[in-house]
Specification:
The complex is a heterodimer of chains A (193) and B (226).
Chain A: H1 3-15, H2 19-41, H3 44-61, H4 71-101, H5 107-112, H6 119-123, H7 127-136, H8 141-152, H9 157-164, H10 168-192
Helix pairs in contact in A: 1-2, 2-3, 2-4, 3-4, 8-10, 9-10
Chain B: H1 6-13, H2 20-32, H3 34-50, H4 65-71, H5 81-84, H6 88-101, E1 105-109, E2 112-116, H7 121-225
Antiparallel strand pairs in B: 1-2
The chains are: A mainly alpha (193), B mainly alpha (226).
Chain lengths: 193, 226
């Protein structure tokens, strides 16, 4: 039985009330979603929140999954939407905190600025992941999402464009811009070290 | 001066579906253009750096199983034998109520059972009479009971009042004794103070007289000398 067929069998069983099938389905995707959250949010707590939100969304909408697309694409579309929602909420919270604190900085600054990563505390011994997170943190959310989908999910630009509701050329340009920015960051790091 | 083709060409380089002809053209340009080569190498290095990510282990969580189990709890256990008979007490209550409201009577005779609604007049009258008697008796007993309770309450109140008065009197007498003792003690202290005061006054007067005598002696001595 192929992985796709296995997914569909698990979904059918879960819809019939099998807790075992549900748990197996979650186990198959939790690591991918958690790591996706880690790379997008940069910290374990937010990644965990995102993962739980994603699976809650999957649970609530499982009956709507028709099997037209792969389950993995469907779950990552949910994850993508939840990540955007979470990012929006965090930006709003940051902006409102700054307004409450009486800072005179522009609200757009908080939107443009990437979240603060704490590779040492959040990732501990995984130095390599810390480096990746440091690089990703230099990208704005829209470019980070493209990099995530292209590099880690191996999606085509067409799929990315469809998911993000943008043109294929825009997706390509964003990916190229992101790599270019990472190149500059990498060069700066080398120069500092 | 950097190559003007770099952004467009490298953007195409990362495309999913680069046409063979375009690919050849790209390779040809890269073989000639050092700028594009350096830029491409740097971008590929960045991409490789990103690919160094190692999947992290998911912390323990319940995988939504609690929610799943709660919402998919099988309802079969609810349709048990006893659950099917839950309507029985309600039905019995309803039947009793109907019997009471419509005065249903069931009589058995040789020809079988008969059910009648509403009571017989004679029976109703005798029941009414009995009911009246019962009501009178209950009223009488109630009046007696109220009278007994009232008298007992009165005597209790009286006793209580007496006890309060006695206690108050006793307390007042004790208080008066204490006040009298206090005043007496105070009077004695005042007398003592007065006695001491007079004594001091007398001593002071004595001193004065002595001084005057000394002065008189001195004056008479002075006049004698002259």
């Amino acid at each position: 039985m192929s992985l796709i067929d296995e997914d569909e069998a698990l979904i059918a069983a879960a819809l019939n009330g099998s807790a075992y099938a549900w748990e197996k389905l979650v186990k198959r995707y939790e690591s991918k979603i958690y790591n996706y959250g880690m790379r997008l949010t940069g910290n374990a707590a937010d990644a965990m929140d995102l993962m739980q939100e994603v699976f809650l969304g999957v649970y609530r909408n499982l009956h709507r999954f028709r099997g037209d697309a792969k389950f993995s694409s469907w779950i990552f579309r949910i994850a993508h939407n939840k990540a955007i929602d979470m990012n929006r909420r965090k930006r709003l919270m940051t902006a409102s905190t700054r307004v409450i604190d009486g800072e005179e900085s522009d609200v757009l600054d908080s939107i443009a600025s990437p979240p603060q990563y704490e590779p040492d505390t959040q990732i501990g011994e995984q130095q390599q992941n810390g480096q990746v997170l440091k690089m990703l943190s230099q990208l704005p959310m829209e470019q980070r999402l493209i990099v995530e989908l292209k590099v880690y999910q191996s999606q085509t630009f067409e799929e990315i464009a469809d998911m993000q509701d943008i043109s294929v050329n825009t997706a390509k340009t964003r990916f190229y811009t992101a790599l270019k920015k990472l190149k500059v960051v990498s060069e700066e790091n080398h120069a500092l070290s | 001066m950097p190559c003007p083709k770099t952004p467009h060409l490298l953007q195409e380089y990362f495309s999913d579906d680069l046409a063979p002809l375009a690919g050849e053209e790209l390779e040809k340009h890269l073989a000639q253009c050092a700028d594009c080569n350096v830029e491409l190498e740097a971008l590929l290095t960045s991409q490789i750096s990103l690919q160094q990510w190692q999947d992290q282990q998911v912390p323990h969580w319940d995988r939504g199983l609690e929610l799943f189990k709660r919402e998919h709890r099988s309802p079969s256990h609810q349709i048990g034998f006893w659950n099917r008979w839950q309507w029985l007490p309600t039905a019995a209550s309803f039947a009793m109520l109907t019997i009471m409201v419509f005065s249903v009577s069931i009589a058995s005779s040789e020809s079988g059972f008969s059910i009648s609604f509403g009571g017989d007049d004679e029976i109703t009258e005798s029941v009414q009479e009995l009911f009246d008697q019962l009501q009178q008796t209950q009223r009488r007993e109630m009046a007696e009971l109220v009278a007994r309770v009232e008298s007992r309450q009165d005597s209790n109140n009286l006793q209580l009042l007496q006890a309060v008065v006695d206690q108050t009197q006793q307390a007042t007498a004790e208080n008066m004794d204490r006040v009298y003792a206090f005043f007496e003690q105070q009077r004695l202290i005042d007398l003592q103070d007065m006695r001491v005061g007079y004594q001091q006054l007398v001593e002071s007067d004595y001193e004065t007289i002595r001084s005057l005598e000394l002065l008189a002696q001195f004056v008479s001595y002075e006049s004698d000398v002259r």
